[in-house]
Amino acid sequence: MALHQRAKTSPPQARQGAPDLSTPTLRIDGNRLVLRDKTLFAQSDEAVRDLVDRVFSAVEVRAVALWRDRAQVRIELSPLADPTAVWPRVGRLLREGAPERRRAEKLNLAGPAPGLSVRVSRAGDALTTFRVRKLSRERLRIGHPLLRRRDFLYRFGLLLESIHGVERVKLAGIAASAVITYDPETIAPEQVLRLLESSWDLVLFGPHPPEKPKRLIAAGGLLAFSFYAQFFNPAALPFAVAAVLVYSAPNLIAAVKDLSHGRVGLAALYSAGLGFLLFTGLPFASGVMAVLRQSWPALSTALAARSERKLFAEHRRRLAWARRADAKGGVALVDVAELGETHLVHVRRGDFIPADGVVVEGLALIDEDMLTGFRGAVDKLPGEKVFAGTFVREGALTFRATRVGRSTAAAALADALPHGALNNLPSSREAERVANRNAKPALLLSAALLVLTRTPRLAQVALRPDFASGPRLSAHLSALTALSEALSQGVLARRPAALERLLCADLYVLDDSLNFSAQTPRVAEVIAPTRAAGQEAAALATAALAGLRDPRLEALEVFAQPFAARRAHGRRHHAGAVSFWDDDGAGVIVAAPAYAARENFGATAALGKAVAALAKARRDPSERPLVVARDGKIVGVIRFAADGGSRLAAALAQLRAADPEARFVHVSSLPQDRAEARANELRLDAVFGDLDCAAKIDAIRSLSPRAVWIGDGADPENALARDAAFVSLSLGGLDRLGADRADIVALRGELEALAAARQAARAHEARLRADYRVIYAANLLALAGGFLAGFGSLRAGLTSNVGSGLVFLARLRGLGAAGENAARAAAARRALPALPPATRLA
Asked: Looking at the domain assignment, is residue 476 inside a domain?
């Protein structure tokens, strides 16, 4: 606790220069130098960091141990060093000005516990507070006293697994260490250690580990004792029964509370089973049921934790280094933590982008699938935005960083993804409601059978079906699958419960903050020497983009519809271009003007002038012109204009087709006539203008209790209206994700994300229905076994739990398949194709 308080409350202070060493004592103790200074640790941590940097300027220094409570610094020297020769040099270093290198700036100098030291040692060119031992070229053992705590060790494992270049992690809590296997071609040990030192906040204050299954452990002990007493030592049966009573005390208390409020539920059902235990005096069956009831939640939690690591591994990736460019064209490798806003960063083929920024130079093919769900790489040209965590498939570019570290969109996405249990799910509440509802007929049936048969067997059988375990784990694990499915389509469900509530929505409210003026592209002009060449250029461009999620494709298909279709053979996407062979065997390249200008294709004077002018212009990617070249000569240039029709209208038409009963309305602060004019193309059911924030809230609540608000969730002016809705959907996109507080975020900023979210929710609902059918079939089979096959309570309970087991296996297979798909996608993303011998096709 003291460590937490120090880490939380130590404010950053201004550097105070060299520590006051006017009255220190520096003495030799064997192969160590011991420095005592009463004022050193009373100063800021910066003074201690200065001292560490100064001391390590001496190459003979191997490690430094800091003892705060003793006001002592122990300087360990290398075995061959002469302490008498090093002593005066260290003294001079301590009296000199500020050190040139600041290697101790990111070190955690708070002690692991009161009375213990902090040991700083060398690790290559870095300083670290970890105990480091290199086991081989690809394996490293990293230890620290803090890792003896289970929560710190868990978070340390999460951090190590997220580092790009670390391939495997093996934790050892007893040894307070971890053994990592890393790719030396991707990351160096010093880079790993520097990243760990700069990430102590995550280790100290990150997500909590799954709770230990204490009740499962207690139930296991109870089962073992009951088995021993019932089958080997009958004299111990009274003690075993008493142990079961103590274990079941919480259920008894809950049942009494429920009955006092006129409720009968699961607690009463379990308490009735306890009554039969007291009657029979045989506790083994109750012990088995207790273990099973505690096993399913523990298995579900463990599976969810393991699946989250696999499903979201790419989204939680941390980069250790970056290439920082300077104004003179030089490039230097630096730690990502050293990047700042406005720094120029250079990336090239095979790199992950380390920060958010805007391209200033170059041309690259970027894969954004892990962030936006967009299948296929996209071209990035000067003036366009790039995001941390995305992958450079081809080309190279330099961008100016706008957000770094934990302020990037990728970091915001990683923080929004779940760690551990998914809480407040409607499906979980429904599982509890259904289980408690089923408890009443089960109790009535048990009582009736006891009266009719005057024996406890069938009455106990009626109480054994498990109505709760299967639905609980199904709700949790199926919801996690739905989150993963939605994310793969570019939809972030920040609040998982909102995904389930979408299917109940009956009204969609379009807010002012939407971009009503956004238009789809259309072909504005084809510049070509002849009409036939222009038609050929349009047909070839359509073939190049066919099957790609490119907003220009639909415009090309409409424009080229009257012309003869062309087929693309051996199509390949380059940075800024698509190349293929046409039906005649000619090489075709459909490229951005910047690519065409660089490659210097053959062209007429008019076409060459048009390409040169377009290469300098900066446009939205949906309006980017296309240059079509065949056999190295430009056939035509296609320009686009953003006036092909409202994007919102097209998306709303798709939503109406999928949900004909839904209503769409617009709430606006604009005057009524202007609001109606803006929404004319959308064919909305109603438009409400002249509304301030309070009036918007009243309108949303009065129109429907199940309304979905659609707007920009990052706009603070919309916060109250957004939160008043049943579900909020933001089209703010990836760029504004850090400030977005909507329940669901469309990472590509497109309304089509609503259809993808509903699809994931419907798949989740279908899984829940299938799981309920399995559970009820198993419970009915257990009851039938009691009547027809003479099942006792134990066999009936085991048969019922077969249903929970089948549900668990189904969810295990589903999450396993999703995790494998994510791993395959990540591997395919990093598997770069071989570069062709020439960029242009002959």
From this structure: no
